[in-house]
Write a structure and sequence with these properties.
The protein is α+β, with helices and mostly antiparallel strands. It is built from 14 helices and 18 strands. A hairpin with a 2-residue loop joins β7 and β8. Its EC number is 2.7.13.3.
Length: 647
């Protein structure tokens, strides 16, 4: 019993010791590697084993890199050179982008084959993981041959891991990738939302570029293993997302460098690049993946390292206003070119071959996107302040305009009140004068027996009635127009009959000239037209002595149902001085030297307001020496029957 207990304790201790040893095994980066390039990718394992040792060349570095090649690379190493083979170890071959990975292990004199990559169904992989891994057991102590091909960059870097080290490495890789994706994916949606709200093409284009680049890196780093059904379509998906990412980048460059402000051929050049990029991926998928991939990489380098700096210089030369990022982005790409291809600084972060399109490489894009976001927010705030300042200036200008308008209106009101006071004083005087004459002549009529007092009383009463009629007409001038059908020729003859006695009072001849095309029936505001003609003809009769007064009426058709009536009142009186013509159109204004002629100064004002109500304007022509001509035009409607006749 004691022996069994002791044996159990020894077994437990030995297992713990082995577990401790296995747990303490660090990852072994293999250094004694030899490689052979199978240019046709046609050789089988038997043919490779038959090759002499001189056919394999030693690798100077711990990894093998080949870019866009048709070759298959065979890498050989011996497990005998690796210490501590007591535990199960895991072999990782290299980059997740490898399409075809085959591992041949010599076990008990026989070669065992394992494979992984997008050309094989996922269920045939030893372990379905982003980076394929192959188990090596303790009894595996012979040589190991690795065959690798890739349709893009080929990176072979064999590493042996213990189970715990492999688990730790995957945890660290998942943590780094999760942090990188989490940080950037937090900024990208926020930038898209803010860019949409601010309507910022630059922010939207930059966020779309970073988002599409994230998708590209996820595809290249094996994240399609989480959707095994998509693995056979890896090449198509990679080409599709690469084209989308490149299109977003070109759009971002166009917005950042203001290509729309440059000559048109620059925009055509960017469009041609996108077409060539799409063609290169079709070339890669359908014809030759090596040549197509090399041309794709050349287009990408041309755009980033040559086209963007040239566009920046042309925009600067043409005086295009650029933000600081338009200078920073091309400059950073030039620094990247200098580090990668001139200094070949593989030790610098994100500059080694292994870091190209790694998930950690999205961090600089996220940082630049954050800078774009902050820049756009600052510009938006600056524009908001400028808009507030402009709005305040407009408010102050509008306030000043309103204050000036109030001041002008106040002055006009004061002037109107003064004019009204003067008008009332004048009306009072003009109304009192005939009324006093009436009272005086009535008193004399009682005291004396002269027979002309009744006639004088009648004339004074008529004068006062005329003044009151003028005031009423002036007060009614703002009433709306009222058009009715009527006989225009009969109306004009009645006006002539009414004016002819007034003209003969001062030995004047009156003439009415009616054109033959003046219609019989029209629709017009005859009340206002009568007022206008009587005032114009009455003024002509008052101021003309031993002369001639004429009323000319003609018309011009304006369509099927309308005409333009042209009227002119001409006299041979003293005329109106040109400086007084506009002044006399105002209420209570009279010309110089007419004090002996009765009048209130309302006639032409009444005419002006009546014509404005009818949509017309009074035209005055006079040289101030011989006669005056007052003319205006009226647009009149024709009654239905008349319009039909004209049609």
């Amino acid at each position: 019993m004691m022996r069994l207990a002791l044996l159990f304790v020894l077994l437990v201790v030995s297992e713990m010791a082995v577990a401790t040893v296995c747990a303490d095994q660090p990852p072994a980066r293999l250094e004694r590697l030899t490689a052979f390039e199978d240019r046709g990718a046609q050789l089988r394992l038997e043919q490779i084993l038959a090759l002499p040792d001189q056919a394999f060349s030693n690798l100077e570095k711990s990894y093998l890199f080949a870019n866009y090649t048709h070759s298959a690379y065979w890498v050989r190493f011996s497990l005998a050179d690796v210490a501590s083979r007591e535990c199960v170890r895991w072999l990782t071959v290299g980059d997740p982008r490898l399409n075809d990975i085959q591992v041949f292990i010599q076990r008990a004199g026989q070669w065992q084959r394992m494979h992984a990559g997008s050309v094989y169904p996922p269920e045939e992989w030893p372990v379905l993981a982003r980076q394929p891994s192959f188990p090596l057991h303790a009894e595996d102590d012979g040589s190991v041959l690795i065959r690798a091909t890739s349709r893009s960059a080929l990176i072979v870097e064999p590493i042996l891991w213990s189970s715990q080290a492999m688990l730790m490495q995957r945890q660290i890789s998942a943590l780094v990738d999760g942090l990188s994706l989490g940080i950037v994916l937090l900024v990208v949606p926020f930038s898209l939302v803010v860019g949409g709200i601010m309507r910022s093409p630059l922010l939207l284009a930059h966020a779309a570029t970073v988002l599409s680049y994230i998708v590209v890196t996820c595809v290249l780093n094996g994240y399609l293993t989480h959707w095994p059904v998509l693995l056979p379509w890896s090449d198509v998906i990679r080409s599709l997302v690469s084209v989308i990412s490149f299109a977003c980048f070109l759009g971002y460059a166009r917005v950042l460098l203001h290509v729309r402000h440059l000559p048109r051929y620059w925009g055509l050049l960017y469009g041609a690049l996108l077409v060539l990029f799409i063609g290169s991926h079709l070339w890669t998928l359908l014809l030759d993946h090596a040549q197509g991939g090399a041309f794709t990489d050349l287009l990408r380098r041309f755009t980033v390292y040559l086209l963007m700096p040239l566009t920046l210089l042309v925009a600067w030369y043409r005086g295009v206003s650029l933000i600081w990022m338009a200078w920073a982005v091309p400059l950073l790409y030039l620094v990247q070119f200098f580090m990668r291809y001139v200094l070949q600084a593989d030790q610098v972060i994100w500059q080694s071959r292994q870091d190209f399109f790694s998930l950690s490489s999205i961090v600089p894009g996220g940082v630049m996107l954050t800078c774009t976001l902050l820049t756009e927010l600052y510009r938006s705030r600056k524009q908001a302040k400028r808009a507030c300042g402009e709005l305040e200036d407009l408010r102050q200008a509008e306030q000043g305009r309103l204050e000036g308008m109030v001041q002008r209106r106040t002055e006009q009101l004061s002037e109107s009140l003064r004019a009204r006071g003067a008008m009332l004083a004048r009306i009072t005087h003009d109304l009192r004068t005939p009324l006093l004459d009436i009272v005086d002549y009535a008193r004399r009529l009682v005291a004396e027996s002269r027979h002309d007092y009744p006639q004088r009383i009648a004339r004074s009463a008529h004068r006062q009635l005329a003044l009151i009629d003028e005031l009423l007409e002036f007060s009614h001038s703002e009433q709306p127009q009222h058009e009715v059908p009527g006989d225009l020729r009969l109306f004009l003859r009645e006006i002539a009959e009414e004016v002819e006695p007034l003209a003969r009072r001062h030995a004047n001849d009156f003439e009415l000239h009616l054109a033959a095309d003046v219609p019989q029936q029209v629709s017009a505001d005859f009340r206002r037209l009568r007022t206008v003609l009587l005032n114009l003809l009455g003024n002509a009769a008052k101021f003309t002595r031993n002369g001639r007064i004429q009323l000319h009426v003609s018309c011009l058709p304006r369509g099927v149902a309308a005409l333009s009536l042209q009227l002119q009142v001409a006299d041979t009186g003293p005329g109106i001085h040109p400086d007084d013509q506009q002044r006399l159109l105002q209420p209570f204004e009279r010309g110089a030297g007419v004090e002996a002629v009765e009048g209130s100064g309302l006639g032409l004002a009444i005419v002006t307001q009546a014509l404005q109500a009818m949509g017309s304007r009074l035209q005055v022509q006079s040289d101030g020496v011989s006669g005056s001509r007052f003319s205006f035009e009226l647009n009149l409607a024709l009654p239905g029957e008349r319009a039909g006749a004209l049609a």
